[in-house]
Amino acid sequence: MVLIMIPGIAFLYSGLARRKSALSLIWVVMMSFSVVIFQWYFWGYSLALSPTATNGFIGDLHHFGLRNTLGAPSPGSPLVPELLYAFYQMQFCGVTAALVIGATAERGRVIPGMVFTFCWATLVYCPLACWAWNANGWGFKYGVLDYAGGGPVEIGSGASALAYSWVLGRRNEKMMLNFRPHNISLITLGTVFLWFGWLGFNGGSAFGANLRAAMACWNSCLTAMFAAMTWCLLDYRLAKKWSLVGWCSGTISGLVAATPASGFIPPWASIILGIVTGVCCNFGTKMKFMLGIDDALDVWAEHGIGGIVGLLFNAFFAADYIIGLDGVNGGVTGGWLNHNWKLLYIQVAYIVASTAYAFVMSALIAKGIDMIPGLHLRASEEAELLGMDDDQHGEFAYDYVEVRRDYLAWTPAEREQKQDGAVVVPQHGIEEHQNMMTNTIVARSAPSTPPDAPKEKTAESTD
Questions:
Q1: Structurally, how many domains does the chain consist of?
Q2: Confidence bin at 461 (pLDDT 50/70/90)
Q3: Which intervals carry biased composition (Basic and acidic residues) (predicted)?
Q4: Burial class (CB in 10 A: 0-12, 13-18, 19+), 284
Q5: Cα–Cα dist 109/388, whole Å
Q6: In whole angstroms, what is the distance from residue 192 CA to residue 183 CA?
Q7: pLDDT tens for residues 46-76?
Q8: Which structural domain range is residue 96 located in?
């Protein structure tokens, strides 16, 4: 169930982008999972969850290459064998990496992105997972309540995507005129895949077909739907239209907030969580403009902020009777509902540490890779205009893209055949695209143009 979240993210990201980079986002998401499977087998599981490391920050290599990983009781539950637990946790790392790599949207080269994924999984995800879920992790010992990954998955993906976007740089503003998501049906399909998989993500984190798993599924759906309705209402106040993209965004932000909280809080608190998350994440989409960082797919607004809200709700509404529904964790105290007042500053400290570490370390990794010859993160301006599908892959999500780059504005054939050496200037529907393409083609053809040949019109001459 968690595995189906990977193609869900791919379809979601693809639909949110422009058509000329739609395939590229599917590729980077699916390939990032290939990288994570190797990383998690190689040393990822051991660095995150090995029981023999005691530093509280990162594991050791006790389980390197899945050594010493078979039928012993797992760190998650004594009822689950460790080999199965390692496989399940691999899906979590894969989902998080897929969320992060969306930061390459429409201007990032894909191979440096895959190098980043391996390094990021090792130096960012594994420590965050160790803090929260390893019995020797500092967060676990400190008393942090993080059910299914508010820190490692949600804050980790949101802050890391923001850092990668910062290092990568903004998309060319001249190419962003009249920008809209190109396929809302694909966005909806990806959201539904995510929703289904999230029931395995949150419900499965109870490590058994028990009442706590059922409660987590109920809480996930309640939070998601109230966040979706809230988001749609907030968007309606501006556009006076009912947005399906808004519904999808609200649903995902609600599921994000439910990730750290669904196994801790009662259903009535999930309704409040959904409303608060819808408001916070909706307004959180404005942060990228305040920061000047082109977080193209709003990973920080939905995942980073949603994860923070969910972790804070644990401090107020976590209840011991919900935690004990799995029959294993009956001795864990909740939050303010159980008069555990100190949990608030524990959760806040964990949020601050996770956010700062993920952002700073991800930025350092990205910048370091960018400085390696041949691994610069950013595609050229010409490649960005052409689209990542054409530049990086030579394949397209839709077969008409090669002929109709702007779909409604294309270059029709003329009656007379072109002579050898004639320059054909494709006609683009967006004016600035047309100007850039015209200037580029004229500049390339200028040295070979005969002196008496008529000059091509440039953007300056037409102006």
A1: 2
A2: very low
A3: 453-463
A4: buried
A5: 8
A6: 15
A7: 999 999 999 999 999 999 999 999 999 888 8
A8: 5-370
